[in-house]
Fold this protein.
Amino acid sequence: MITLKHISAHQSSITSPWPDGEWSSELALAARDAHSLLRAVAVDPEQLSEPLDPSSSFPVLAPPSFINRMQAGDPNDPLLKQVLPILREQQPETGFVNDPLAETDPNSGFVKAPGLLQKYHGRALLITTPACAINCRYCFRREFPYQQHRPRNHQQALDAIAADASVTEVILSGGDPLLLSDEHLLRLLNAINEIPHVQRIRIHSRIPIVLPQRITQGLLDALNQRCQMIMVVHSNHPQELNSQTQRAMACLQQAQLMLLNQSVLLRGINDSATVLSALSTKLFTQGVLPYYLHLPDHVAGTQHFFVSDDEGRAIFAKLQKILPGYLLPRLVREHSGAESKTLMNE
Ligand SMILES: *Cc1c(COP(=O)(O)O)cnc(C)c1O
Ligand code: SF4
């Protein structure tokens, strides 16, 4: 059980610079179609080397604070490319499918309760919400059937975790779990905290990067738990990190969270040892250690970002020559049915 004493013990040292309402106003101002996104970054559609897809079924979503980190007027900006829908997404490509990991196949055995996936020993993953604060074109869950995994509450999932003493870590995923309200998140975290065999709660979120204003005092208080807390943020390019992300990370660190980063290796965005090295180094200045560098999955609509195993290994080998070991992420690919992510850097 979480106690108020426990909360107040850390409170004096944590100060979020952002008032409660700011992140929702920021999100309300997000670009939600290709043309307003291009206008916001001062790029003329004529400048683009690829035709746009103005009516994608996976909608555009990019908050202003993320757009502000793009280079105005640059049609090839690495942040812009992560969120701009192009027609090429519609081109079918052999081997690229909606759910390459068969995560959602009821016969896969991964779905332990509505919204609860367990593929690996000791770690259960809770789908908390389908929504994100940004829509990344390369997303491996862009076609995830959230409707089927959207329980009205998490009771069945919590019961399943409580009934299995081998689960020592609960991962909050989504969508983006930090889009939940403070109250909802606190209720969920408290409930997980009450399960005695759970030692760690890990939150996978791109929000500290794309919507740092979400790291409010209320959130920091909710994150103060008996369990060890880990935040795995998601940044792909050093240009995504600025003084706002720096402040968000400092708050999370003061709230006793261990900060890790995962990236996706993306063609045309960060498929270079120079960019990845700058990313690792900059993450470290903000208190974040590189964790995973994912080779992209074979997801329909994302084939133009794809990097092959051999290309990935070649980039990684260069990266390894220029970085200290502790700044090297683990290069991984996910194979459905495997008992862990597959390490590719060997
Ligand atoms: C990636 C993943 C995890 C976490 O794996 P780690 O190697 O512990 O980071 C857990 N559950 C599922 C379903 C995953 O896809
Ligand atoms: S934040 Fe993560 S889950 Fe959401 S769209 Fe981007 S990659 Fe997908």
Summary: DSSP finds twelve helices and ten strands in the chain. Strands lie at 111-113, 116-120, 123-127, 169-173, 200-204, 228-234, 258-264, 289-294, 330-333, 342-343. The longest helix spans residues 309-322. The pocket of pyridoxal-5'-phosphate (ligand 1) is lined by residues 117, 119-120, 123, 125, 171, 340-341 (CB under 6 Å).
